Amino acid sequence: MGRGRHALLLAEHGFHVTGVDIQFAAVAQAMHEARQRGLSLDGVCADLTCFPLPHARFHVIVVTRYLDRTAFPALEHSLVPGGVLLYETFTTRQREHGRGPTSRAHLLEPGELRTRVRGMDVLFDEECVAPDAVARIAARRR
């Protein structure tokens, strides 16, 4: 759930939101904050490496600071046609900051994110090095 921040922001703007996080405390906190604000939020505590996402269900999927290279096909197929994937996570340049993930398994190579959404229409993409080294992309399912 990006620890709930993005889910709450989308719910505030009228979206029907399903937030997924592996950490129960993060799901519970986001749902608690949503209730306090009078917002509707469905929370799911799940490990996305073994939790199957539904086919053609979501209009928007937001993934932040999480990388599982094998998940990209499932993310694309979980979008309705015309749905948008918003993805942001660390690149290998994050190591220069001395904080955050250091394993290659959790860091994108330069230019890699664009290749992960091959077959989708890229609406926006960028890589930056400060304040954190991240790659961001917005891609639409055809």
Helix content, binned percent: 10-25%
Sheet/helix structural class: alpha/beta
What is the residue-averaged pLDDT? 93
The 3D shape can be described as: globular
Query: How large is the count of helical segments?
Result: 4
Order the strands across the largest sheet as they lie in space. 3-4-6-5
- Can you tell me the CATH topology of the largest domain? Rossmann fold
The stretches of 5 or more residues where confidence is low (pLDDT under 50) are none
- Text of the CATH class of the largest domain: Alpha Beta
Domain unit count: 2
Distance between the termini: 25 Å
Sheet-strand content, in percent, reads 25-35%
Q: From the alpha-carbon coordinates, what is the Rg to the nearest angstrom?
A: 15 Å
Beta strands, count: 6
Give the name of the CATH architecture of the largest domain.
3-Layer(aba) Sandwich
Order of H and E elements: HEHEEHEHEE
* CATH H-tier superfamily of the largest domain: Vaccinia Virus protein VP39
Outline the biggest β-sheet: 4 strands, mixed
